[in-house]
Write a structure and sequence with these properties.
single chain, alpha/beta, Carbamate kinase, VC0802-like, eight-stranded mixed sheet, 21% strand
Length: 487
């Protein structure tokens, strides 16, 4: 039986836009602080971008005189504005001002390394970690000034240990779990709030690493997973500037529905194929917690509304086939590359060669499909990488021969429909393709993941909006004829 609930918050940059945002967060902390609570913080809004500008200006000052000093001054001033507005106690104000100056001095020292070594991956990760390490300390002291017990726990001090893939590091989960339990359990037992800077950690050599896109969300689910045990249920709450996950992007459909309940597996499919509210790797870590962890996405500006998304291991079962598709997501800027050869049938390892060439140049493959005749393989990449990927294959001795043709379609888009019950109900794909075909929409390629929870189609970019509206009307608003919709 679950005996204890721990809440893990993640406050993103959208929650730390202004000094008033800190005051708004107090309402939330006040409601939850009597339960065990840990809070993961992002950098103040806009600070990470400013740090990157600072680093770039050191490497390439351009025409602006003293550009690095200007950016550094802006970074300091932004944090000092928060302190000046929020902290009334003179001694605490002085302590926080000293901390900010120490970090600015660290950034000035880093400037020397960047000037000598360039903006290496190691220097870059250390640089951009300053946003979270400053905001985490600032928020800890702010909570303490408001009467809460809180402790700042830096992520690179024997806490979040990762591999050395700078810019997109992955955690050493078993090591992280031991560290997190050791550091957080005493605070949780005493109802002291642990404040953890998101986005960064360190490798075994002690070098600072960052977790890539969605890194602070990732930190939150790593912490949540580590704390989720048989007798400890963890509720990870992501405070965003939206109510939760919508059934479709509102730029295409007015007033889309909110997905109040969705399974982790479905959410992973949505996030992978375009829904940017969470990152798939963040959900993958939460999934490891099984029944002992859930995720909520709530609106920071309307924190106690009943309109929010809950993500759990359990899947919701619809009662009609026109409700089987829960959400539609898109990537509207992709290129589809097709490698074709009649000789491919008799050449083992062709796919492996293609993907190793693409991976060597850090090009992300979004989807893969192969013709049933086995004489062609198509894959999608972001449009900005399309021509580069095509040229890499054509220049390769293996694929540059007369036996292979490499084609590219630049004006392509991905349309992906997601629903857990597509696994169990036959005929969904046929119904979907017929619906799109009747609307005059040509499907260039089809891909279905091994989970069978999504069907992904490549269509022309100029037909994307029409395709979305047709699918939304038919499968989410339930406008399929009743005789078709019932199974």
């Amino acid at each position: 039986m679950l005996k204890l609930q721990t809440n893990v918050f993640k406050f993103g940059g959208s929650c730390f836009k202004t000094e008033q945002s800190f005051n708004q967060s107090l309402k939330i902390v006040e409601k939850y602080h009597n339960e065990p609570l840990a809070i993961v913080c992002s950098a103040l809004y806009g600070v990470t971008d400013k740090l990157i500008e600072y680093g770039n200006s050191v490497v390439n000052p351009g025409d602006i005189e003293d550009a690095p000093d200007i950016f550094l001054s802006e970074i300091k001033d932004k944090h000092m504005k928060f302190i000046d507005t929020l902290i009334q106690d003179d001694d605490l104000h002085k302590e926080m001002e000293t901390f900010i100056q120490e970090k600015i001095d660290d950034l000035m020292d880093l400037r020397n390394h960047i000037e000598q070594e360039g903006l290496t991956p190691e220097n870059h990760d250390y640089l951009v970690s300053f946003g979270e390490r400053i905001s985490g300390f600032l928020y800890t002291e702010y909570l303490k000034s408001e009467g809460f017990q809180a402790q700042f726990i830096p992520s690179d001090e024997d806490f979040l240990i990762t591999d050395s893939n700078f810019g997109n590091a992955l955690p050493k989960l078993n090591v992280c779990k031991k560290n997190i339990i050791k550091k957080l359990n005493p605070n949780l037992e005493e109802k002291k709030i642990s404040i953890i800077p998101g986005f960064y950690g360190k490798n075994k050599k002690g070098q600072v690493t960052t977790l890539g896109r969605g890194g602070s969300d990732f930190t939150a689910t790593i912490v949540g997973w580590a704390l989720s045990e048989e007798d400890n249920f963890v509720n990870c709450i992501f405070w965003k500037d939206v109510n939760g996950i919508l059934t479709v992007d509102p730029q295409y459909v007015k007033n889309p529905k909110l997905l109040k309940k969705i399974s982790i597996k479905e959410a992973k499919e949505l996030t992978f194929f375009g829904t940017k509210i969470l990152h798939p790797k963040c959900l993958n870590t939460a999934e490891k917690g099984g029944d002992h962890i859930k995720i909520e996405i709530r609106n920071f500006n309307d924190p106690f509304s009943e309109e929010f998304t809950t993500i759990t291991k359990k899947a919701f079962h619809p009662d009609r086939s026109d409700k089987i598709i829960k959400a539609i997501t898109t990537l509207n800027d992709i290129a589809m590359i097709t490698v074709q050869s009649d000789a491919m049938v008799d050449l083992p390892g062709t796919a492996a060669k293609i993907f190793s060439i693409i991976a060597e140049y850090n090009i992300n493959i979004i989807f893969i499909t192969q013709g049933s005749s086995e004489n062609n393989i198509s894959f999608g990449v972001y449009a900005q990488d399309g021509l580069k990927a095509k040229k890499l294959l054509e220049k390769n001795k293996y694929f540059g021969s007369n036996w292979f043709k490499v084609k590219i379609e630049m004006e392509a888009a991905l349309l992906s429909v997601v629903g857990a019950q597509m696994v169990h109900k036959p005929g969904v794909a046929g119904l979907l393709f017929t619906t799109l075909g009747n609307a005059g929409i040509n499907i260039r390629a089809i891909s279905q993941g091994s989970s069978e929870m999504n069907i992904t189609m490549v269509i022309s970019r100029d037909s994307l909006e029409r395709a979305i509206k047709v699918c939304y009307s038919s499968f989410i608003e339930g406008n399929l004829p009743t005789k078709i919709a019932k199974w």
